[in-house]
Amino acid sequence: LKEAELALTREELKKRLPLAGKKALVTAGPTYEAIDPVRFIGNHSSGKMGFALAEKLSQLGAEVTLIKGPTSLSLQDKYITRVNVTSAEEMLTASQIYFPQSEITIMSAAIADYRPESAALDKIKKDSNEIDIKLIKTTDILASLGREKRNGQLLIGFALETNDEEANAIKKLKNKNLDFIVLNSLKDEGAGFKGNQNKITIIDSKLNKEVFPLKSKYEVAEDICKKIIALYSL
User: Tell me: the pLDDT tens digits for 108-117?
Assistant: First the structure.
């Protein structure tokens, strides 16, 4: 009975939160694209930014689904729905399932742009000094969701850049029909993959720009969520 009462109290309190009643979708982590049963093409994403966003959205009252690539991170919030995927294709399928019902979608996963055309069924042996692997493009999930986006949905992307950062981020913002984009640079010391901090710039569809100092990824998640709440109050 006590647990039922606590759940009821939580639901009553949740109704007063700024994102109460909103469904949110977050993607996090890397994708692994198989070369053979033991090898893959991947990246250095830890998933920490996406996990922080999922936790913060839930704290603000949203009903959150987190689609995550391979990562050892765990969620503190038991109310978040967690969907585990490995490849870009699996993330695409899961995103297409949950996106239509989501009012807020944040694509923070580092999804592979290319994958091997075919994965070997058996482990590739070291019989040669060279190996040729033909790579083909994966589906651009963010662009495909941008084409499907309807009125009332917010779609947010990330841009991790190494050069012409702002110009590349604005191009992505426009081409993929985003409401705003979160730009971070690999040139910013202490920010980016694996670490616990990030340094971001938020650029919205009207090209309003807000630059933030280096912060913990949890604080960055708070800044991103404040932007979401501001857009809903317009």
Answer: 999 999 999 9
User: Residue 211 corresponds to which tokens in the numbers above?
Assistant: 């630059």
User: SS3 of 16, please?
Assistant: coil
Q: What is the pTM of this model?
A: 0.91
pLDDT in tens, 194-204: 678 899 999 99
- The Cα–Cα gap between 204 and 63 comes to 24
Per-position DSSP letters for 32-81, written without gaps between them: -EESSSS-EE-----SHHHHHHHHHHHHTT-EEEEEE-S-----S-TTSE
CA distance 80 to 32: 23
- Token output for 137: 């493009």
Catalytic center residues: 43
